[in-house]
Amino acid sequence: MARVRYLEFLLIIMELYPPVHTVQMTAREALEYVAYVETHDCNGGTGNSLQLQFDPTTWNSYALAAVRTANFLSKMITYNNNNVSTLSEQVLYSLVTNNVHLKSVIFGSAIALEPDPSLPYPLMCPYAYKETDNSSTVSVHAKDLSVSYNYTDPQTEWYHTLRFQNYTHLSIVTDQIQLRTGNSLDPASDVTQPVAFLEDGRWTNPYYDCGGGDIWMVTYSSPFFGLSPDHKFVIFRGVATIDIELTNIDVNQCDPDLGSSGGALDVFRGTHSCQPTTVCVFTPGKGFTRGAYFCECAPGYFFPDTHASNKYYNGSEIEEYITRNNLTYITSYNRYRCNQCAPGCVTCTTAAPCLFTRNLYIKAVVLVLTIITIVVIFIVSVVIFHLRESKIIKSGSPIFLLLMCAGSALMCLQLFVMFPDADDRLCMVMPWPYHLGFVLLYGSLLLKTWRISVIFRQGQIKRIQLPDKTLIRRFVPIMAITVAYLVAWSSANRNTTQTRETNDGLKFTMCTENWWSYSAYGIEVLMLLFGVYLCFTVRKAPASFNESKHITWSIYNAIILSTFILIIVQFVAETSGPDLMYILYFLNCQVVVTITMVLILAPKFYAVHMKLEVRRRDSLPTISGMMTQHIKRPCRSVGVQTTPTGEDNDIISNNATWLPFRKRSKVRPIEAPSSNKYETTMTIDSIKST
């Protein structure tokens, strides 16, 4: 297969040329080469190396053992007149076994001597290494490595590279030593020796030590020397090494972690084969091999086999699949991938939906009913405008009746804003139609009632004139304050949406309720309570003179039913989904708008339709059912601002005083001559038309 042939060709190239001439591998090629070497027979030596640029500084603390060993050997050689033969095999084996006995990641240690006639063998390399038996007992073994392979071969990177290195810069130091003779010290004598430092040695690339430890390892070599007769030049005498076993060092192929300190083998980071719908998770403990990871589903995806006990893909299986099929990467779209979760799911185990699906039929029915309500309000507005000169309609102030219609239509527009799924822009707009409409509707009602209250409470003392224009001027600041509050609300409220869950765990987005909305509802409740107070002050006025009964009913209706519905929305509907919330907001609109409009306008339209006549003043009942005094003498009341013909009465005597119809008042109204036996009275609402 093409991929295998490439690896075989790479192996041949590495055997023909020394490592210094080998082209650098990619991290992925290195891992494939590791897998290839482990499954094929090797020849003695260290030619199977990975030409990688990696950072071995993590192991520098272990490399100091080799540096100290090399400096000790240099001292012994120079102290004995550069005679290598003075180094006995017992000393050499003791040094290397001592390095391996350290409890560290050091696997082996060697002292490779440069060939010299004074040595007992042409090549001599005492080597100690760790070995673990079947019972996991670790023991140290030592042998002469030169029996297994020729370490002076150019392919032996840990020796060959230092053998021909330039050491003219190496430090040569002179120590003063006083030996002891008997109970006294001899005069100090100078001992000159070369001293190697950590940077004078060299880390090898990872290689497979065939014939040595038969494992993948990396070696640090520190040279030791003799001195020329004039002590000016160093003579290369060999190297002392320590081996770091890579077998038990994990290869992490997953992507680098942000802020991690990293390690020597981080060169393999990012070489995993997890697909875009999965994420790589490192599995430590597998050693120096590829595939030490698994691919679990990324957030927003789920494992296709929902019944599998392990819901992830094994990295070693993926790597074997790529090698077996001569692939560089996985080309199959459906292999080793996860399925996407339903929209709105952050995590999932199946394709079950996570978002609440709104019922289009419910939304459509509610919207159609809302449109019908708005159309009816428009028709009512046209009728009011058409009958604006009628005494019954005129007594109710047509301008305020039209404002009430406009407010009702505005409140209904809230349901149009709620029709789509909530988002930041819609939630920013949603408070405007409801709260503006509320102030228009109930502000008009309260101003009309306030006028009646002022006239009946203060009319005994002074002359009161409150035409519609005056009330409109008072109404403008109220609307300005409302608009300013809504502007501040829209400007300050940035997080306008929130995600909620139903009892079934389905998510939906709704507009955020915060102290801005709660404050608005609180102000509106206070506004309605003030309306209740106004209606109470005029409860004794003749029934045909005011609308307080119907206004009171509409206000009580708004306070009780609307508050009840809003409580249900807050504590029940939010866990049932937006469909129920949509229905409840529609019902709230009908309570606040439709019922109020019916209570206020139905009696007027009925009176117009039935063409009811204005009754005598002495037969008018009060709201509480009490009768006014029967006035028999012919007189004309000056307690109204409008004549029976609807024209302004601007010629009232300066001595005239406003006398409201109060409960069994003992103050008799000021009488004026009249041609009629009984005075003609108009409802107090006729005052509003002036």
UniProtKB/TrEMBL annotation:
Residues 1-22 form the signal peptide. Belongs to the G-protein coupled receptor 3 family. One of its GO terms (molecular function) is G protein-coupled receptor activity. Its main location: other. It is found in: Cell projection, Neuron projection; Postsynaptic cell membrane. It is a multi-pass membrane protein. It comes from Magallana gigas. CDD domains: 7tmC_GPR158-like (cd15293), PDC1_MCP_like (cd12913). Keywords: Cell membrane, Cell projection, Disulfide bond, G-protein coupled receptor, Glycoprotein, Membrane, Postsynaptic cell membrane, Receptor, Signal, Synapse, Transducer, Transmembrane, Transmembrane helix. GO terms for cellular component: neuron projection; postsynaptic membrane. The keyword Disulfide bond applies. The chain crosses the membrane at residues 360-387, 399-420, 432-450, 471-492, 515-538, 550-573, 585-607. Residues 362-613 form the G-protein coupled receptors family 3 profile domain. This is G-protein coupled receptors family 3 profile domain-containing protein.
